[in-house]
Amino acid sequence: MTAVQTSAEQSGVTTGQDQYPAGAQVVVRDEEWLVRSSMPTEDDGTRIEVVGVSEFVRDQEAVFFSGLDRIELLDPRETTLVMDDSPNYRRSRLFLEAVLRRTALPQSERRLALADSFLMDSLPYQRRPAELALSGANLRPRLLIADVVGLGKTLEIGLTLAELIRRGRGERILVVTPQHVLEQFQHELWTRFAIPLVRLDSVGIERIQREIPAGRNPFTSFKRVIVSIDTLKNTAQYQHHLEQIRWDAVVIDESHNLINRGSLRNQLARTLAPRTDALILASATPHNGDAKSFAELIGLLDPVAIRDPENYRAADIEHLFIRRTKISPEVREQMKGQWADRGPSHSVHCPATPAEEKIFEELAAVWLPGEGGTSVSSVPLFPYTLLKSFLSSHAALRATVSARIKTLEKKDDPQGTAAELVALQRLSELAADLTEADSAKFAALVRQLREEIGVGPGSDERVVVFSERVQTLEWLAEVLPAALGFKGRAARDCVRIMHGGLSDEQQMACVEEFGLADTPVRVLVTGDVASEGVNLHRQCHQLVHYDVPWSLIRIEQRNGRIDRYGQARPPEFRALILTSEVEGAKDDTVVAERLLEREDQAHRSLGTAEAVTGLYRAEAEEKSLIQDLLRGRTVDESLDARRSGADGEDAGLDDFLADFFGPVGEEAAPAEPTESGGSAAAPGTEASGGRAAASPVLPRLFDSTAQFLDDALREVYPDARELLDLERDQQSGLLSFRPPTELVHRLKALPSDYLREQRLRERMLVTFNRRLAEHSLQRARESSTSSWPEISLLTDLHPVVEWLTDKVLVGMGRQEAPMITANVAEPIYLVQGVYSNKLGRPTVVKWMGVTRQGAIDDTMVSLLHRCGVGPSMANKGHYRDSKQLREALPNVLRWAEEFLAERRDAWEAPLREPIAEYKRKLATWHQPTLDEGRDRQRLADLADSLLTTGRPLLRVLAVLVPDPDHKDNDGPPLVHLGPPPLSPPAVWWPRPAATR
């Protein structure tokens, strides 16, 4: 393989960086290395990540800086043309395919390249976030994915990251999530997309810091990391480390938590946003009803998108924001058969027991009297806190009463609190001796679980029970097992409890156990910590609201845990409604039951309930509702007044937010680049005006990755059956082998639990059979020992495929290119040409066939097929003497550069236009709270850095040579590239500098 980098002085253009494309070989410290990625730095030249090729450093990973190390850059004119004696020119074809695979797609390639290769259903709506991120409408891949609960945001994020990786823009990835979904997110990205993330929870970071030298940045130890936002928000501890790292892509899940300026989460986001190229935010509830807060969230993606944070429309940010609901046309049509329709929300009426009626009487008479009455509490909202505690359980009521007594006893006004203290003592006495026998809700819960749902010994049925109060959860976890008929060890194992007071490891363990079919867990009692982001639908379609949150958003979030993409059975919801015969009692029929009905109506008519009140936050909805109840309004009056702006305080807000929470993102996908864009089409393919799957994006010499891997194994390990203990099941497509040392070294990036539980260092099971991989994943969910599948799907991103690709690349000697006897009339040199920007990323990639006279064809893959290069071709062993072929290299390279230079402007046009538009917006940008001059210059420099700079990097890959035994009437006609140019190129290829 060969590469050249022309210095700034030689090209006459100040580039400010060196070009080291992925897949190129370089010589550093007298050893050969394969470039994995490169990025310019401010002080030390270009930072290149490499893996060792020569014997002494083979498969060792390293990082070099062109400003600090002597790096030998190879001159393509000095390429050695070598004989390939492998059967059917297998070695040459593998080498060309490996170069194609290792070359990053140019940034002008807008179409998706890998969408059909992963372990996910082919649903176009789930591709659209990736299409929008890569559309060029935004300078960088920056996007807020605001699809409602359950549509598959994790899958959409995974696909977007995969496409960035294929473009060389996803080497360093940071994913930030709530602590209870860390493992779930990590699991999905590996099992579905073969993207390994190292989980750095609080324990993981502590372990790394013990293993690395003091003061070293823990985030430099791994390239792709997933970490809890609760861990990272400790900016005092991690701020310095984060400021020293630049990421290719950052993902922040549940990003609505970032909005409040001055909060630790907000500070974290403001630290990460300018230090990453791609930024993906995800939230089903991204808006808190405040235009300025939402503008700040969008400002993390693009500071220039919104000029006036108090006055903007959906059209201003449509390039940064995508949102669909389950009833959106594209989702509804594509989801048929993939997501069972939800059933109704059943209200289970629970007539209060005599002991509970006494408490209702006390609350109605003393704490929440009717019209004209006065509450004993001096805090208007506290009586409703007391009521909600009681509607949850007697255990929660006792806790609330006890806490209030302690608060009042500390006050210096005994006379002012005396009446309330007396009333609290009466409530305490009424609740003191209550047990499960006195709880109408508990009796109804047991009946529902045993008789209606079928939970009990000998049954596999599962259910999730929600409550807002920790005391209720703890009480239920204690008394439920016996009431359901479980005894002995089964009683200890059948119920799991989850709430925000547990550590992240404990929360993840609860979710994993509940999701594994073979575990004894039957009931998960959980607080609303599980209402955001957690998948509980794998083995469960039954949900019970033990108490009902006074927020439509929270109800919908809870229901969304089992009502989501992939749910095979219709989700069923039940709510326990405590009723009372006491006059004036505010039982669950007053608020909870009505909220359940309104949430169900909104979900079926609008696809989401979060916009009903216009408040967009569960806490704000509950506070507003209680205030309206204090004013004497009903639930319906409160909801309708808020939405219509009847109070005057939010008039006009409805129309503004309707744009964002209506059909945002439902328009057609961005138009594809046209053929005039040159490199907007996949390198070596025709441009297409259709959707992403209209034509092949990736240039491929082999028909499939499976065929490539099969031939690569034969070439690299001809004795694989013995050397790797390779076993192949022809019927199922399963490959089983013992990974060699160099592959084991690469596997360290995989999740540690996965490595350990599946014993991957000893044996790997992989397949291209999607059904087999899906079956293995499903079988893992039915296991009680591990949620990790034993068989993984081989995708282009899988470490096994990447390892074999690199093995093929280094199988060709330094600066060597093979000669291939083909059906050509004259020698055709296969040349790769790459233009890059200041960030070292390719902007134009061309694969060319060039003759000595200057005739050029820039569709190398189709050219190879026309010339008969394929698995059935014969290797006749001609052209052992390459002297004459090599003497023509300088002229061939001059022709290639002239061809690229003449067409560069046309190819660059799709890139220049959005950059020019961005700079026009930047010129009128006004942000008085920031250092405008500094920030405007920084953003302008960023825009300029995306433009092509300098001269192209050229590499000679192979030479197609005529068959001397060919006869005119023998076989298909010989391939000609057409007439050569009228005059030789004016550009002379200078000898590059060998060091830096």
UniProtKB/TrEMBL annotation:
<keyword id="KW-0067">ATP-binding</keyword>
<dbReference type="GO" id="GO:0005524">
    <property type="term" value="F:ATP binding"/>
</dbReference>
<dbReference type="InterPro" id="IPR049730">
    <property type="entry name" value="SNF2/RAD54-like_C"/>
</dbReference>
<dbReference type="InterPro" id="IPR000330">
    <property type="entry name" value="SNF2_N"/>
</dbReference>
<keyword id="KW-0378">Hydrolase</keyword>
<dbReference type="GO" id="GO:0016787">
    <property type="term" value="F:hydrolase activity"/>
</dbReference>
<dbReference type="InterPro" id="IPR057342">
    <property type="entry name" value="DEXDc_RapA"/>
</dbReference>
<keyword id="KW-0547">Nucleotide-binding</keyword>
<keyword id="KW-0347">Helicase</keyword>
<feature type="region of interest" description="Disordered">
    <location>
        <begin position="968"/>
        <end position="996"/>
    </location>
</feature>
<feature type="compositionally biased region" description="Low complexity">
    <location>
        <begin position="985"/>
        <end position="996"/>
    </location>
</feature>
<dbReference type="GO" id="GO:0004386">
    <property type="term" value="F:helicase activity"/>
</dbReference>
<feature type="region of interest" description="Disordered">
    <location>
        <begin position="666"/>
        <end position="692"/>
    </location>
</feature>
<protein>
    <submittedName>
        <fullName>Helicase</fullName>
    </submittedName>
</protein>
<dbReference type="Pfam" id="PF00271">
    <property type="entry name" value="Helicase_C"/>
</dbReference>
<feature type="domain" description="Helicase ATP-binding">
    <location>
        <begin position="134"/>
        <end position="304"/>
    </location>
</feature>
<dbReference type="InterPro" id="IPR027417">
    <property type="entry name" value="P-loop_NTPase"/>
</dbReference>
<dbReference type="InterPro" id="IPR014001">
    <property type="entry name" value="Helicase_ATP-bd"/>
</dbReference>
<feature type="domain" description="Helicase C-terminal">
    <location>
        <begin position="441"/>
        <end position="616"/>
    </location>
</feature>
<dbReference type="InterPro" id="IPR001650">
    <property type="entry name" value="Helicase_C-like"/>
</dbReference>
<dbReference type="Pfam" id="PF00176">
    <property type="entry name" value="SNF2-rel_dom"/>
</dbReference>
<dbReference type="InterPro" id="IPR038718">
    <property type="entry name" value="SNF2-like_sf"/>
</dbReference>
